[in-house]
Structures are given as structure tokens and as C-alpha cells.
Design brief:
Elements lengths: L1 E3 L6 H6 L6 E3 L7 E8 L5 E9 L18 E7 L5 E2 L6 E2 L4 H14 L11 H16 L8 E7 L2 E10 L2 E7 L5 E7 L8 E3 L11
Antiparallel strand pairs: 1-3, 2-12, 3-4, 4-5, 5-11, 6-7, 8-9, 9-10, 10-11
Helix pairs in contact: 2-3
Length: 209
């Protein structure tokens, strides 16, 4: 899956191009909400995207604000449900999306917003590559002992999620009634009290209006 940042355009533009609904935390969360990035296939079709809630994460795992408090954020990743299909140019086959797709995107998302504070920047790429591979292995085996089950509401309906914690934060992934796959990751906010719902108007997240 390819990530597109839409440089030079409003962040919301990519979200508006999606053919599926976006999910975020439900109305019980009253803090800041912000758009991140969408991911598009080779043919430009939007396939997934992320919406942040709370503090915008810095890149260090021990990041604190001026008061000394740790960052508190949760990011919700929506992945469109797609079957196995031929690529736009007809030369290959694109894999179907699944809960594992959402788990991997969430796992990588958490990694890219944090790394051990004692690590030299020159080692970061090697560390990130290694941890990204680990995130993929974990996402590919959601029934392993690394994951537990956590039930959270999606549009008010109790929904099972796969959940794991690490020293950097937590990751979860599941599917909605309409077939979309949801991933989420966060730090400083407990996943146990979260709920998800469809974003009624993505334009409300557009800080560039």
C-alpha cells in the first residue's frame, strides 16, 4: 500500500476522494481531531487513511510537553474492504485487504511516531526496518499469544478487536459491519475506554479552511 501526502493541496482533499466512509473516535472523545495522510493504489484509488485524536505525536517515544506530561493520542486507521483484484494495468494481482492490513498499518503508524530516546539517529532506519518487519509478522498472525481480544463499540455495536501492547504504545484492529477494516494505535490514552463511529462530515477536520 502506497502512502500519499497530497503536498500542496488541502489535507482533506484525499479523504474526499475515498469511496468508503471514514471512522474516528466517537463523540465521547472531546479533544482535538486532525487529519494525517491517505494511502492510494497505483491507479490513484484511495485505499486507507488515518485520523488523529489528542496531541499530535512527536517522533520520540519519551516525548513530553512543556509541563512534563507525556503525549496522549489515538490514531484511527480506516482500510477499505477490497477483494483480490487485477491491477489497473492488468499486469498483476492486488491482494485483498483484511484485518491484518489494518493491524499492520496501525503497527507501522505507531513505530513511525516513536523510537527509543537513547537511539542514535543514524541507527533509526535500521531499527525501523527491523521493527516494521516484526509488525508485519505480528499482523499476519492475529491468533497468536501476542494478541488479546478487546470488545469496543463501533457505531454503538459491540465489536471484537485484536489488541496488543508494547513499550511504545498499543495497537488494535478489527472489522466493521459495513466491511471496512479498522486499525488504531495510541499512547497515553487507554484503549479500553474508546469507541468508534463513522465521521459524518470529514470537512469538519479540515484545519486549512
Amino acid at each position: 500500500m502506497e502512502t500519499t501526502s497530497h503536498t500542496g493541496a488541502r489535507a482533506v482533499d484525499g479523504y474526499l476522494q475515498a469511496s468508503f466512509p471514514w471512522y474516528g473516535l466517537d463523540e465521547a472523545f472531546t479533544g482535538p481531531r486532525w487529519l494525517m495522510q491517505v494511502g492510494a493504489g497505483a491507479d490513484g484509488t484511495v485505499e486507507h487513511g488515518s485520523i488523529g485524536h489528542g496531541d499530535e505525536p512527536s517522533v520520540r517515544g519519551d516525548a513530553r510537553d512543556d509541563s512534563g506530561a507525556k503525549e496522549r493520542f489515538a490514531v484511527v486507521v480506516t482500510v477499505a474492504s477490497s477483494p483480490v483484484r487485477r491491477s489497473g494495468d492488468g499486469t498483476g494481482v492486488l491482494e485483498a485487504t483484511s484485518v491484518s492490513s489494518a493491524a499492520w498499518l496501525a503497527g507501522v503508524g505507531l513505530l513511525t511516531s516513536t523510537w527509543p530516546h537513547q537511539m542514535d539517529h543514524t541507527l533509526r532506519d535500521d531499527w525501523l526496518e527491523q521493527q516494521t518487519e516484526t509488525a508485519w509478522v505480528l499482523a499476519d498472525d492475529l491468533v497468536s499469544e501476542d494478541w488479546t481480544e478487546l470488545t469496543l463499540p463501533v457505531d454503538g455495536v459491540p465489536t471484537p478487536f485484536h489488541y496488543r501492547e508494547s513499550e511504545f504504545g498499543w495497537v488494535l484492529a478489527g472489522s466493521t459491519r459495513d466491511g471496512a477494516h479498522l486499525g488504531a494505535y495510541g499512547r497515553g490514552m487507554s484503549a479500553y475506554g474508546l469507541g468508534f463511529s463513522v465521521v459524518k462530515d470529514i470537512l469538519e477536520y479540515d484545519t486549512q479552511r
